[in-house]
DNA sequence: CTGTTAGCGCCTTCAT
DNA sequence: ATGAAGGCGCTAACAG
């Protein structure tokens, strides 16, 4: 048994000598999100296939943590970094690139960095999602979005607005809060206590959707009969009985795998050049959280 | 800004010289389990407080992966290991201790290793859980357990059996399968297709419970009206709308934090001596997956 | 107190 | 083919 062999080589010596640790890092922002779990699995797999070890870190959605941890990882001379960043501000990526450490980014465009990015098109997906609700007959829609600093939140809000504009509808309201269940809960409370209630809400993230659904339940509003909820990234999970939310799914596994591949191409020297941007398609999945509005029968077909 | 400083020290040199990396490893077996997420958070926090960095690895419930990864981690000279092991076989722990690397174990007793262990009492908890069902009036109970090689599965089965024996009841049946939703699904199918159906099942793990609930739904058996399901470790999660299963909760965060503390006591040299075993209390939480049996009214009080 | 040096374990080079 | 030596970046020990 190799594993039983007494002698274990010291990679510190080897790495010091060769300038390669054969370790890459995956830095995710929120480990509570099942989305991140999928990334951890996929990156680990893709890296192991190519002989690399992966170490994971989570930043709890804090840019300061993100920078601290990238620094620590680079101190330990990881060969590269896959980053699922907190925001698209350039600081973290700048820092890593400034240290000549290869990096690839999962999630959203990085306008100020010439870096490899793998993402999906949030804006278009949000439009599609909103159109789906409009197609069901909804006319009063609200948006529960994420932090303004985060690109996905902005893009999803834009897509929402664009779909409404195309249908010549006005949004009932538009909210921002952190990407957490608690944030969703508070936004939904506000929505339900306002004068005009929407018949459907678009949420910018799965945790927000969970919070929104909890608030609806607590205030006695039935989903989907009285209120439809749609969301993003409600990934199927072994730990959950049933997918519940109608929403947009990103090809998480493929995104993570691709980001790892791009990274290792740079690490191994097979590629060096300008940043590549790969945009993968999303898909809409319909589940139990949506229905036509209660008063749908009264009106004609609403599809433009 | 410190993080902007151009120079980043090379920990490889430092570590090679000082024999300390200030990094500890957390090796969990199944990252799909929300249980593991909590461990990742808690160990990370406890270690950071004490100036250590944590790297995570998951073994996909394979002992081979576990050993491989421990080896890789030790090659990179982590200062210690927190292990949430696949089984209680001594090989992994032996290997780590044989390399003079401090280790502490989360989960279950390690009869063949003199090692620090933090765990809860699965057997007693399973008894309590089963007694709860009996107290509701259930007399026909089945057990959907985990792999025979895994201690928690054995202990939980023993507790189940003990509670039944104390109430002078016979189990309807007893099944073993992997700790996965799929395993639970198959066991539940078998249970529901047998001649005598139980009115309640005890599952040995949250993923098994999810599979069991899916099978019940697919076969048209209503939970909890026609069938009660109880489980272990159905940790509350931000990603889930509501805790659904009645079951036993372990103090996951406290266990992980304690294991980290014990480990770092050894790493720092504050403690060296024989293995310590810390057993933390569990608690029973009642949710929507249990009810008295449909025919409960017909009989008298069943509590012994 | 500052400056120099040896050596941690490994790989690469060069000599035998 | 096998063997010896230098140096990766760092710190601890020691000298000035």
Largest interface: A-B, 52 and 52 residues
Instruction: Give the uncertain stretches of chain A in residue-range form.
Output: 296-304
Count every beta strand of chain A, where a strand is a DSSP E run of 2 or more residues: 12
Proportion of residues in β-strands of chain A? 15-25%
Shape of chain A: elongated
Structural class of chain A: alpha/beta
The number of helices of chain A is: 9
| CATH fold group of the largest domain in chain A | Rossmann fold
The helix fraction of chain A, in percent, is 25-40%
- The CATH architecture of the largest domain in chain A is 3-Layer(aba) Sandwich
Main sheet: strands, sense, barrel of chain A: 6 strands, parallel
How would you spell out the order of helices and strands of chain A?
Answer: HEHEHEHEEHEHEHEHEEHEE
CATH class of the largest domain in chain A: Alpha Beta
How many independent structural domains of chain A? 2
Radius of gyration computed on alpha carbons of chain A: 22 Å
What's the overall average pLDDT of chain A, rounded?
A: 92
State the end-to-end CA separation of chain A: 69 Å
Classify the oligomer: homodimer
The CATH superfamily of the largest domain in chain A appears as Response regulator
Strand order of the largest sheet of chain A: 2-1-3-4-5-11
């Amino acid at each position: 048994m190799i594993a039983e062999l007494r002698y274990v080589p010291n990679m510190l010596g080897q790495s010091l000598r060769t300038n390669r640790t054969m370790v890459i890092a995956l830095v995710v922002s929120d480990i509570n999100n099942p989305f991140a779990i999928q990334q951890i699995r996929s990156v680990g797999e893709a890296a192991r296939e190519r002989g690399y070890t992966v170490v994971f870190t989570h930043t709890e959605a804090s840019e300061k943590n993100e920078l601290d941890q990238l620094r620590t990882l680079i101190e330990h001379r990881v060969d590269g970094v896959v980053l699922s960043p907190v925001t698209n501000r350039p600081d973290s990526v700048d820092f890593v690139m400034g240290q000549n450490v290869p990096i690839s980014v999962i999630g959203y465009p990085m306008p100020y960095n010439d870096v490899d990015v793998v993402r999906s098109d949030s804006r278009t997906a949000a439009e599609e999602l909103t159109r789906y609700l409009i197609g069901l007959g909804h006319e009063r829609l609200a948006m529960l979005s994420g932090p303004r600093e985060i690109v996905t939140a902005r893009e999803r809000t834009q897509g929402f607005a664009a779909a409404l504009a195309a249908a010549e509808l006005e949004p009932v309201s538009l909210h921002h809060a952190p990407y957490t269940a608690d944030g969703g809960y508070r936004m939904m409370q506000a929505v339900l206590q306002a004068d005009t209630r929407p018949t459907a809400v678009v949420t910018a993230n799965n945790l927000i959707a969970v919070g929104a659904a909890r608030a609806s339940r607590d205030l006695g509003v039935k989903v989907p009969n009285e209120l439809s909820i749609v969301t993003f990234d409600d990934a199927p999970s072994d730990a959950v009985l049933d997918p519940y939310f109608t929403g947009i799914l990103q090809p998480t596994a493929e995104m993570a795998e691709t980001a790892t591949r791009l990274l290792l191409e740079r690490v191994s020297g097979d590629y060096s050049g300008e940043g590549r941007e790969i945009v993968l398609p999303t898909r809409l999945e319909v589940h139990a959280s949506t229905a036509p509005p209660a008063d749908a029968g009264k009106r004609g077909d609403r599809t433009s």
